[in-house]
Design a protein that fits this description.
The protein has helices at 15-20, 37-46, 57-76, 78-89, 115-130, 161-179; strands at residues 23-26, 29-32, 92-99, 102-109, 135-137, 146-148. The chain starts with 14 loop residues before the first helix and ends with a helix. The radius of gyration is 18 Å and the shape is globular. A hairpin with a 2-residue loop joins strand 1 and strand 2 (29-32). It has 6 helices and 6 strands, in the order αββαααββαββα.
């Protein structure tokens, strides 16, 4: 049985940013997908983690802790957020091994309920190691979403050109028309 459709305006970002994007603005009101286990199931489905993880209250609690840690480090400061992310990462480690198919990395967790939270924190480390300057908040003043800029020249400004980018263009057009 699959979870209901994901209501968020931006999905498909790397796992760490996708977790941050479980809070968004809609018509001036803050929305939160992770208010209950049903919302967790929707997020796990959207993130491709549902088959391996059964949503429960403990997993939701761990995921909320990871989301706050990521929010602090992405929107606040690395100094304040690093210990919070480390606290989530402390619940697991990577076991590296060699198989007949080649090298593999497998997470080993203190409790399976930490898996989605730990994977999101680990993904953030990967993003930092790959292109930290491409982890961005949307440039629209009323948007709280984040994205990983994969544009060729690294100049993406909006979570979505169709929504926030269009609103900004319309606002500039209105201001020019008003001044004229």
């Amino acid at each position: 049985m699959s979870a209901p459709r994901d209501p968020r305006p931006l999905t498909g970002e790397p796992l760490a940013l996708d977790l941050l994007n479980t809070r968004w603005m809609s018509e001036g009101s803050r929305q939160d997908l992770l208010t209950d286990v049903d919302g967790l199931a929707v997020w796990l489905d959207s993130a491709g983690l549902r088959d391996a993880h059964t949503p429960d209250a403990g997993m939701l609690r761990h995921l909320l802790q990871a989301r706050e840690a990521l929010h602090t480090v992405v929107d606040g400061s690395l100094e304040k957020g690093a210990p919070l992310v480390d606290a989530v990462l402390g619940h697991g480690r990577v076991r590296v091994s060699l198989t007949p198919q080649g090298p593999v990395e497998r997470p080993e967790l203190s409790d399976p309920a930490w898996a989605p939270a730990w994977l999101a924190a680990r993904n953030y480390l990967w993003l930092l190691g790959t292109a930290p300057d491409r982890i961005r908040p949307c440039a629209h003043e009323s948007c709280v979403l984040h994205f990983f800029d994969t544009s060729r020249n690294g100049t993406r400004r909006w979570c979505s050109m169709a929504t926030c980018g269009n609103r900004a263009k319309a606002s500039r057009h209105y201001a020019r028309a008003k001044d004229a």
